[in-house]
């Protein structure tokens, strides 16, 4: 695996290749990232992973500082997966140029995480837009756990007619059902048990809501989640995955979306 710490070195290596499969990450690699890379291997393209903890998408400096970082562990994982290239850019290297495409923020950005994390998606789309211009990958691999982020990146790419295809992959879960996340590394044993209970509760809610949409009363359901051990809930909503609106009928294709805190650790999921 070849490692590059600035875009000049990287571009010198990959040139104008249009067969790159790209995975933007913030490190803290887990089963979800591994699954994405293994899926990409089936395409038989060269694989490129970036590790960059983007300060622009954090609302609080404390969250940015506490974000799990373990580069040596990440390197071991990537080498085992036989990733071709690793890009480790600096802030200056990423943000010292003006990208060709303007950031397009679809109105869906104002809901869910966007409602509670001001400028979060501005920061996400800014850095992804820059990565796409530097790398110009054929495929961009993203997980469905971050459904809102995935949707907004899709909208941005379509709006700007960027010739990169997004491949979305299913949410990978721990053996206890909790969605894999880099933030899980910061959970203690008791917090992981609570996260498991939250996941199981959401599964039950979805089954009942599919039978009768009126069952979904977020005020009552949030109280139940607090009893389970959740400290704070940003949102608990049902969204039609196609229309991006609240469903009107129980037979629509919808997911339950949640963002909650266990102490100061913020977790998201959609089921």
Question: How would you sum up this structure, described in words?
Answer:
With 271 residues, the protein is of the alpha/beta class. It has two domains: 2-169, HUPs (Rossmann fold); 182-270, Pantoate-beta-alanine ligase, C-terminal domain (Pantoate--beta-alanine Ligase, Chain: A,domain 2, 2-Layer Sandwich). It has helices at residues 7-14, 31-41, 61-66, 71-80, 91-95, 113-116, 120-135, 147-159, 189-211, 218-228, and strands at residues 2-4, 20-25, 46-51, 85-87, 139-143, 165-169, 232-240, 254-262, 265-270. The strands form two sheets. A six-stranded parallel sheet has the order 1-4-3-2-5-6, with helices on both faces. A three-stranded antiparallel sheet has the order 7-8-9, covered by helices on one side. Helix 7 (120-135) packs across helix 8 (147-159). It is globular and about 55 Å long. The model has no long low-confidence stretch (mean pLDDT 95).
Would you spell out the secondary-structure blueprint of this structure?
Elements: E1 2-4, H1 7-14, E2 20-25, H2 31-41, E3 46-51, H3 61-66, H4 71-80, E4 85-87, H5 91-95, H6 113-116, H7 120-135, E5 139-143, H8 147-159, E6 165-169, H9 189-211, H10 218-228, E7 232-240, E8 254-262, E9 265-270
Parallel strand pairs: 1-4, 2-3, 2-5, 3-4, 5-6
Antiparallel strand pairs: 7-8, 8-9
Helix pairs in contact: 7-8
């Amino acid at each position: 695996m070849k490692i590059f710490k600035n875009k000049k070195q990287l571009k010198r290596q990959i040139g104008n290749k249009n067969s790159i499969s790209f995975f933007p990450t913030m490190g803290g690699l887990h089963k979800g990232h591994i699954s994405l890379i293994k899926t990409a291997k089936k395409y038989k393209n060269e694989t490129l992973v970036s590790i960059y903890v983007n300060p622009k998408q954090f609302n609080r400096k404390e969250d940015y500082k506490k974000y799990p970082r373990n580069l040596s562990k990440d390197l071991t994982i990537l080498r085992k997966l036989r990733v071709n290239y690793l890009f480790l850019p600096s802030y200056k290297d990423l943000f010292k140029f003006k990208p060709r495409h303007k950031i397009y923020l679809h109105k869906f950005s104002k809901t869910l995480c966007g409602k509670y994390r001001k400028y979060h998606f501005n920061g996400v789309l800014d850095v992804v837009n820059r990565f796409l211009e530097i790398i110009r990958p054929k495929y961009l691999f993203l997980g469905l756990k971050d459904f809102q982020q995935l949707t907004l990146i899709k909208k941005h790419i379509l709006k700007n007619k960027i010739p990169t295809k997004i491949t979305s992959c299913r949410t990978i879960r721990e053996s206890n059902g909790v969605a894999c996340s880099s933030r899980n590394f910061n959970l203690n044993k008791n917090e992981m048990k609570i996260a498991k209970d939250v996941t199981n509760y959401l599964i039950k809610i979805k089954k009942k809501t599919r039978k009768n949409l009126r069952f979904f009363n977020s005020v009552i359901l949030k109280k139940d989640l607090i009893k389970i051990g959740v400290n704070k809930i940003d949102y608990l909503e049902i969204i039609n995955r196609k229309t991006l609106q609240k469903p009107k009928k129980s037979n629509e294709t919808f997911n339950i979306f949640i963002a909650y805190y266990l102490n100061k650790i913020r977790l998201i999921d959609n089921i």
